[in-house]
Amino acid sequence: xxxxxxxxxxxxxxxxIATSALTASNGLTRLYPVLVMVIGYGIAFVCxxxxxxxxxxxxxxxxxxxxxxVLITGIGWVLFRQALEPLAxxxxxxxxxxxxxxxxxxxxxx
Length: 110
Known about the structure:
Blueprint: H1 3-24, H2 31-51, H3 57-79, H4 86-104
């Protein structure tokens, strides 16, 4: 695994943390979640930019957004008690399948 994919993974983790803090900020009314959100999104975009040195933007963004959606949905379900309908679970499965197919296709390999 190249350093670019490590940066991409860090970007995903930072974005997921920031989005979770956005939910916890209660409409930007709670200071600490807002600070976590701002810092998290900043780290996410810096890491994403570093990953784009060798990963094509379309591939990086597809992986970033796809994995991010899956992780945020799981966090919403576990931490925020948000319901997951069977159709939503099927969609998550399709997103994961798409990310795996994209990776296996060789797109973005450095």
